[in-house]
């Protein structure tokens, strides 16, 4: 215990502080020294000191000093100190505390106590969504700032400014002279409205002045005002929350009634409900979502707080993906699906909905509908958004994938069925015409009838060709729609899967598995089309066979079943071979990708031949399996090529051995022609069944992707804007159930803006802590808290969006430097340059010929190791996150560059967690 603390502990009267004996810090002439136990500091509205009306601010351990803050007037918040069992404080007169400044040995410790008190109160009332700091002050520094500057120090100082400032963005303070200096902790900030000269002074330089304690009083008044504002905002948020809860309950009832009437509700009725909505953007999104079979919901606190990117926020809340599209040319003449767009006039959101001929623009704000023309298109901003459906948070089977992809294709399927039926009927004309030619035209030498039949056959062929063309168009539309839906759904599922899922597979193998889902959809779609058309055609043709001759029709039926059985049997024989072949293909793809991405390392090590031998060993197995599968297929094709001859022979045998009364030549030839069509249908049915069986190994490989539940679809709370406070409470973790504990009962607490480093040898669990903090793994025991909220109950993606991360194995993407820094965020070139400057990379980029647009190759050979790490740091900080996690992020930097980067990162005021083998 320091000398001043000893003096404070020896003075004053002891006083017990407990839950039933709260201490009100409303006397500015007093101070209190925590002698034992722990004091919890609360803010409470005047007259609402009960537990329900309190807001926790901070905790004070023994040896800490508390100052009386005075009263803020009627209705203003008051500070309450409540102790844990056994807590005792010493009640002091402020004059006795002031006397400690007469002793130089006590002054330094007293300054530390006052700085700690200022930091505690500032961090307690500062809002989480603090603005981006533009000026970082150090003690004894003087500087000039521009209007709008956000000033924050590296540690607690007293600020003197030539112009008034806003404390925490709300309370105006005048700090023009040492007599009116104002204390500012590193967790707080001042906003300067006009050009000003600033000077930062240490507490030790002012504590001896008689007006020093008046500055402390002004600080207390500003803190109470801020606490009052916070209480009003909290009450407003609570009213909004209750209103949202009530609205949600009403909406739940309305949705239930809506579902009951869904079968008779039309798109026009939906639009009628939404036009004139209080929020045109949400209404336009709902209109687009209804057409796309996407349930659109409003984000939390939507309409009550300002959201930087509301469209993306709505998409995230609705668990869907969106893509920004450019509306150029005569886009409305093509089918692009429902779109969200904006009018140039007032940037008003509108829904662009596909119509029978082009698009219809629906404006929810003005309750108008109009067809999109060239003039209407020019009224749009030229950009819009396309929403993509997702698989949702449920496991999927192949049938589920097919059902998902069928949305929006009903009309095309109907065209396909009707044309298939018409084609089947027209197909009967060939065997009928054959019978007429042999039975009537040729015996009677009726040339006129022959010409008519030829003309009819030509017309029939042309009609069939037209039907086939329209069928192909419908098939293409179906394939395009279904492929887009499934591929977008697969990518969304992959992006939402837990990080632990990806440890099970190599990159190449996972790519093969994910592409298998699209192949499953394609096979099932083609199988559905083929079986539907074949069924219609076979049914009609079978009727014709039985019309000609029942006995021969039964023979044809037997031949049909034999062909189908042979094809299906072959598929069952190939099934185990295909299963092994897909497994080997996935492994070969993974090996090939690893070789291609690591080709430079292989060349350095001179291991090209060994890599080739390793790949060839697995690829040769794939070739052998492919050969075995192809041999089975060849045997089947040999059999199928002999089926027409065998079927004709069977007909002759039956006719000769089992005569069925009088059978004319014309009837026999017509029957033969119809039977040939039936055999062709049998081959088609067999191929369809074989294709369906072929998806079994594909589904077995794709099952982990389809059945693993995505982490972002669970019902989790929105964390809101985080301040950067982190707590790890008694966390234990192991990677495998039977494995050793990697972390054993680890606890730590990190305050907003703190810099914490984990140092230790490899395998000590440093990176594991980082993975737990990011939610990539879940602790076996214990919990992790962000802003006192359990991470397990929060939306992990919303938390991660507020974190900047650089892993030791982080990679750059092929493209230019600008795109590597900003990614897909809607940021400008200035934002990229600012991030590059903070990471110490700006001068390096300026020396490159293309500057920010310098292209980085796949192997990143354009940059050195240090430049690569600084570029990764720039990418992590470009969005000014509240938290930064670095895992060996500066290992390739020299000491001078490391110090420059560290100093620049201080200005972000972000909580920093660093993993390193050693600190330098």
Describe this structure in words.
It is a single chain. This protein has a six-stranded antiparallel beta sheet. The chain has a five-stranded mixed beta sheet with strand order 9-11-16-13-14, covered by helices on one side. It has four domains: 102 residues, Jelly Rolls; 123 residues, Cysteine proteinases (Cathepsin B, Chain A, Alpha-Beta Complex), CATH 3.90.70.10; 310 residues, ABC transporter type 1, transmembrane domain (ABC transporter transmembrane region fold); 191 residues, 3-Layer(aba) Sandwich (Rossmann fold), CATH 3.40.50.300. With 920 residues, it is of the alpha+beta class.
Specify the overall morphology: elongated
Number of helices: 25
CATH class of the largest domain: Mainly Alpha
Amount of beta strand: 15-25%
Distance between the termini: 31 Å
The CATH homologous superfamily name of the largest domain equals ABC transporter type 1, transmembrane domain
Looking at the overall shape, the CATH architecture of the largest domain is Up-down Bundle
SS content category: alpha+beta
What is the helix content?
40-55%
Quick structural summary:
With 920 residues, the protein is an alpha+beta fold.
Which features does this protein show?
single chain, 920 residues, alpha+beta, Jelly Rolls, Cathepsin B, Chain A, ABC transporter transmembrane region fold, 4 domains, five-stranded mixed beta sheet, elongated
């Amino acid at each position: 215990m320091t000398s001043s603390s000893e003096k404070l502990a020896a003075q004053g009267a002891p006083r017990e502080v407990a839950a039933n004996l709260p201490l009100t810090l409303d006397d500015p002439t007093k101070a209190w020294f925590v002698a034992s136990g722990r004091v919890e500091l609360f803010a409470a509205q005047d007259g609402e000191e009960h537990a329900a009306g309190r807001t926790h601010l901070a905790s004070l351990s023994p040896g800490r000093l508390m100052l009386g803050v005075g009263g803020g007037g009627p209705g203003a918040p008051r500070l309450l100190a409540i102790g844990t069992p056994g807590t005792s404080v010493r009640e002091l007169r402020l004059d006795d505390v002031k006397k400690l400044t007469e002793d130089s040995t006590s002054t330094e410790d007293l300054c530390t106590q006052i700085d700690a008190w200022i930091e505690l109160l500032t961090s307690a009332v500062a809002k989480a969504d603090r603005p981006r700091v533009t000026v970082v002050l150090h003690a004894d520094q003087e500087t000039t700032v521009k209007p709008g500057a956000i000033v924050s120090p590296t540690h607690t100082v007293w600020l003197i400014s030539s112009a008034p400032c806003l404390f925490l963005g709300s309370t105006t303070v005048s700090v023009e002279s040492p007599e009116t200096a104002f204390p500012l902790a590193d967790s707080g900030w001042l906003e300067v409205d006009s050009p000003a000269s600033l000077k930062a002074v240490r507490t030790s330089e002012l504590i001896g002045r008689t007006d020093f304690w008046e500055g402390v009083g002004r600080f207390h008044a500003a803190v109470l005002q801020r606490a009052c504002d916070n209480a009003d905002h909290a009450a407003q948020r609570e009213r909004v929350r209750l209103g949202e809860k009530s609205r949600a309950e009403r909406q739940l009832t309305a949705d239930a009634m809506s579902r009951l009437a869904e079968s008779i509700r039309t798109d026009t009725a939906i639009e009628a409900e939404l036009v004139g909505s209080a929020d045109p953007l949400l209404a336009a999104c709902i209109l687009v979502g209804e057409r796309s079979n996407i349930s659109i919901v409003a984000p939390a606190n939507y309409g009550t707080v300002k959201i930087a990117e509301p469209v993306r926020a709505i998409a995230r809340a609705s668990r869907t993906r969106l893509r920004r599209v450019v509306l150029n040319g005569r886009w409305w003449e093509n089918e692009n699906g429902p779109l969200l767009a904006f009018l140039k006039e007032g940037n008003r959101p509108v829904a662009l909905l596909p119509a029978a001929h082009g698009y219809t623009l629906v404006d929810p704000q003005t309750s108008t509908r109009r067809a999109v023309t060239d003039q209407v298109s020019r009224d749009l901003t030229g950009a819009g958004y396309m929403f993509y459906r997702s698989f949702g948070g449920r496991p999927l089977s192949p049938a589920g994938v097919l059902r998902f992809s069928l949305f929006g294709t009903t009309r095309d399927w109907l065209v396909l069925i009707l044309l298939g039926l018409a084609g089947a009927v027209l197909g009967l004309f060939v065997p009928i015409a054959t019978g007429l030619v042999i039975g009537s035209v040729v015996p009677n030498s009726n040339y006129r009838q022959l010409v008519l039949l030829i003309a009819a056959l030509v017309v029939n062929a042309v009609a069939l060709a037209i039907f086939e063309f329209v069928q192909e168009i419908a098939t293409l539309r179906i394939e395009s729609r279904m492929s887009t839906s499934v591929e977008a759904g697969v990518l969304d599922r992959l992006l939402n899967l837990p990080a632990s899922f990806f440890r099970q597979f190599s990159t190449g193998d996972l790519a093969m598995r994910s592409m298998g889902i699209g192949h499953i959809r394609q096979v099932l779609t083609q199988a559905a089309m083929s079986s539907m058309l074949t069924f219609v055609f076979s049914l009609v043709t079978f009727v014709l066979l039985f019309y000609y001759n029942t006995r021969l029709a039964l023979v044809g039926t037997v031949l049909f079943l034999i062909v189908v059985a042979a094809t299906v049997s072959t598929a069952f024989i190939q099934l185990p071979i295909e299963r092994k072949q897909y497994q080997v293909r996935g492994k070969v793809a993974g090996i090939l990708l690893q070789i291609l991405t690591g080709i430079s390392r292989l060349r350095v090590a001179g291991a090209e031949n060994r890599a080739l031998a390793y790949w060839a060993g697995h690829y040769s197995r794939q070739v052998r399996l492919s050969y075995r599968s192809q041999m089975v297929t060849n045997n089947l094709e040999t059999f199928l090529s002999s089926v027409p001859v065998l079927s004709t022979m069977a007909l002759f045998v039956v006719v000769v051995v089992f005569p069925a009364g009088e059978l004319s030549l014309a009837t026999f030839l017509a029957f033969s022609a119809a039977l040939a069509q039936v055999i062709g249908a049998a081959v088609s049915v067999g191929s369809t069944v074989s294709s369906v069986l072929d998806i079994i190994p594909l589904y077995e490989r794709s099952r982990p992707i389809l059945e693993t539940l995505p982490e972002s679809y669970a019902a989790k709370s929105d964390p809101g804007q985080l301040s950067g406070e982190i707590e790890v409470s008694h966390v234990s973790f192991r990677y495998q159930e039977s494995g050793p504990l990697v972390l054993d009962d680890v606890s730590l607490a990190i305050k907003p803006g703190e810099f914490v480093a984990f140092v230790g040898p490899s395998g000590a669990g440093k990176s594991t802590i980082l993975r737990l903090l990011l939610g990539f793994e879940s602790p076996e025991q214990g919990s992790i808290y962000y802003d006192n909220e359990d991470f397990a109950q929060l939306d992990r993606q919303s938390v991660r969006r507020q974190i900047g991360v650089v892993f030791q194995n982080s990679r750059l993407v092929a493209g230019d430097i600008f795109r590597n820094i900003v990614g897909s965020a809607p940021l400008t070139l200035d934002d990229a340059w600012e991030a590059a400057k903070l990471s110490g990379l700006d001068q390096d980029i300026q020396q490159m010929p293309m500057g920010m647009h310098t292209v980085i190759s796949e192997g990143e050979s354009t940059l050195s190791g240090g430049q690569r790490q600084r570029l990764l740091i720039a990418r992590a900080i470009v969005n000014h996150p509240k938290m930064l996690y670095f895992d060996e992020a500066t290992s390739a930097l020299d000491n001078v560059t490391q110090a420059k980067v560290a100093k620049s990162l201080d200005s972000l005021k972000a909580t920093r967690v660093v993993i390193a083998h050693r600190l330098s």
